[in-house]
User: Fold this.
Amino acid sequence: MLLIRTLFALSLFIATNTYAGLDDLSIESPLRGDYVIGVMTHDQRPLVLKDGYPEKQIGGYIKGMFRTRAGTYTNSDGPVADELSEGLRGFFVKQKWLGVTTLATSSNEARTVIEARIKKAALKRTVLVTINDLWTESYRNTSVTYSFSIAVVDSSGVELAKAEHTGIHDTSQWGDEAASEIFSKLIMESLAKPEFTSALRG
Assistant:
């Protein structure tokens, strides 16, 4: 009986602490709104831009008895930027915003192109996430090297609030779940800041 209870408790712990891919971010926030906002993720990783790595690749992955390196890909097998944008869109929809639209981007676009797209959309607010580095390496546990920014911009592309996140995240999650875990945590922290709340509600 004790073993059954232990296994049940363990399964409950895993169920409530397992992260899905970037397209299903686990974010909590008291934010509410009554207008349409935009969501855009801009992938600026040098390995993707210069070395021909596919946009859907998150980073490195060590596996197997001899630690053979192989690629780590997104949950949806699509570009990292697309999957993260979809995760943010889904988050805002769940948080009772009336409307969210995803503004498409790709890794080879300059910042001026991104700003032009934001201006053309003419939405009151857009959440813009820029990925500068994302590398996931796993053996027994996982280390995620990350560098990204999250900003709230107005219809003219002017930044109203911005947070930079750079570091190494150690976790028991694997692959894209490890990346999702740190993105969820840091995006949630950013959105909880008074300047972000004010910018989104303004």
User: Anything to note?
Assistant: The chain has one domain: 20-201. Strands lie at 36-43, 57-63, 68-73, 99-102, 125-138, 142-154, 159-171.
